[in-house]
What does this fold into?
Amino acid sequence: MHKFTLLASLLLIMVLGSSCGSNKSMIYLQGADELYKNGADLENNYTLNIQPDDQLAIYISSQDEELMKPFINLKMIGLQTGMTNSASSSYTYFVVSKDGYIDFPIFGRVKAAGLTVNKLSEQLQNRMISEGLIKDAKVTTKIMSFKVTVLGDVKNPGTQSYTGERLTLLEAIGRAGDLNSSAIRKKVLVIREEDGKRQTFKVDLTQPESVFNSPAYYMHQNDIIYVESNKSVKVKGSSGYLYLGLTGTLLGLGTSIASLIIALTK
It folds into this structure.
């Protein structure tokens, strides 16, 4: 009787241990409450650089309507106060060429790739003022093609469009409906193409330092996030159910049980 009580206790410990281990792998940012309880300085390094194929909206304002006329075209929106905005739906944007330029009224080809939107705005504004074109020019530039694609084991995979500049990895995953329970949180892959190079980053969502210290924490234009599924998940599109991980776990558990029974019945 004592042997069977011991066997039952050991089996219960094994099951509970397996369950606890599984639940721990589901928790995001483990230990973040202690790690950052005294606060931590933030690096505001999320400013985007303009890239080839980006679409830019350039806003120009001035108190003098006459000075604005040479710059009025369908690629500019947000002109000076008093001008109608009714046709804004027909406006297009400046598209950055593959060699990094935009075609700007009066100025012709203007280098844009590699600059921040603030830097491009500053250069255009200073040039308008220094060349006597618009003495009180105010220029603002926005990237209108900021998009991120989230694939794999998330609730709503697909491409997200975003009009701001600050988008984090966690926010992008949240916009995709969060990870499914079957997703592997320790190996989230971010693929980035920038400056003619392709680079990959692996992020462990369970570890706060892996998340917040990653170069991929702040998203860039056209980033791709891929979330891998656990092997125990059914493969979509297949005719059967592949529970490989579950089968391995049950076999391992069965082997352990058999070994315990043999040991206790000797």
Q: What stands out?
A: The longest strand covers residues 55-61. Residues 101 and 110 are 5 Å apart (CA to CA). The chain has seven helices and ten strands. Strands lie at 55-61, 94-95, 101-104, 108-111, 138-143, 146-152, 158-162, 188-194, 197-203, 224-227.
